Input
Amino acid sequence: MPVTTAASEPSTERVPGRVWAIRLTGHADRTATVTCTTAACRMPPRSKDLAGLRAFAAQHAAAHARVAAVHANAWCHCGFTQCAAHPDTPAHCAGGVALVLQHDPVVGRVWTLQEVCQACTPLIPNGCSSFGGTASPA
Ligand SMILES: [Zn+2]
Ligand SMILES: [Zn+2]
Ligand SMILES: [Zn+2]
Output
């Protein structure tokens, strides 16, 4: 009797880490639009109110962080991208994942929220963990 191991234990199967990116895109006529990688999200119309759009984008990223429940069995999305967020500080992905919101104030136009492991989280520049620091398991 052959033993089949395929399709067993779905609850411990790793799932890909998720990522949300909210972008403020400027146009030649001094208007801008906000986009989200989640197509279903309702975004404000193209507008000249850059400050308003920027505030909306920041709030939108925070809203995703609040609503999204971390998949405890997710892969680190940072590691999935060969750690593109911190190319100068290599890490070996380890530990559980948390939601990390990354926003570079210099660029100021992109908010990235991703599921990141404990090894990568402190290495991500301008990263902010939604868990308010690293939670160490007992
Ligand atoms: Zn969205
Ligand atoms: Zn990484
Ligand atoms: Zn990682």
User: Anything to note?
Assistant: Helices lie at 50-67, 77-80. The longest strand covers residues 19-26. Residues 78-79, 83, 86, 91, 120 surround zinc ion (ligand 2) (CB under 6 Å).
